[in-house]
Amino acid sequence: MKLSAITLDCADPLALAAFYQQATGLELHPKSDADFAALEGENGLSLAFQRIDGYRAPSWPDPAVPQQLHCCFRVADLDETEARLLNLGAGRPQHQPNADRWRVLTDPAGHPFCIVGGFAEQPPPRCAPPPPNCRTSRS
After folding, report:
1. What is the pLDDT of residue 123?
2. pLDDT at residue 130 in the model
3. CA–CA gap between residue 113 and residue 106 (Å, rounded)
4. Alpha-helix runs per DSSP H in the chain
5. What residues pair up with 109 in beta bridges, in sequence order?
6. Does residue 100 contact residue 125 with C-beta atoms inside 8 Å?
7. Which of 18, 52, 85, 130 shows a CA-CA span of 20 to 30 A to 101?
């Protein structure tokens, strides 16, 4: 069994795909449409977006609407990457559990995601759980 896609619910798949396409440089799948869009990643892993009627954005850190999952991205420079993503339309929650090592941002649909410093020093883990510093919980 091989993981082939991570799919996020949202109100506008093409708009959310455009945000992540600009953020990551991944290519939009040619059959993407208003109901389902996907970005094709390396090694066959896609980041996908599906339209949900009545979509409600996660309210992290308030658990009223849970985040359910989040993605972590390793980056070389936290400040530079954060500024670039904010310019693309990301949000920055006030609560930042460890802003010196990682930042919690939200995509335009409200999904929390992390940018984790240290891309140049350490490649992301393979076939392992996310690094312990990639948590959006208040613990």
Report:
1. 45
2. 44
3. 6
4. 13-24, 78-88
5. none
6. no
7. 18
pLDDT at 128 exceeding the cut of 50: no
Look at 24-33, 71-80, 92-101, 124-133 and tell me which has the smallest mean pLDDT: 124-133
| Percentage of the chain exceeding pLDDT 70 | 83
Nearest to 49 by CA among 11, 76, 23, 85: 11
Residue 65 contacts by C-beta under 8 Å, 6 or more apart in sequence?
Answer: 56, 57, 58, 59
- With CA atoms as reference, report the closest residue to 73 among 87, 57, 90, 60: 90
Quote the CA–CA distance of 116 and 3 in Å, as a whole number. 22
Q: Give me the mean pLDDT over the 86-97 stretch.
A: 95
SS3 category, 14: helix
* Lateral strand order in the sheet of 5-10: 5-10, 46-51, 36-40, 27-28
Q: What is the pTM of this model?
A: 0.72
Helix (H) or strand (E) holding 9: strand 5-10
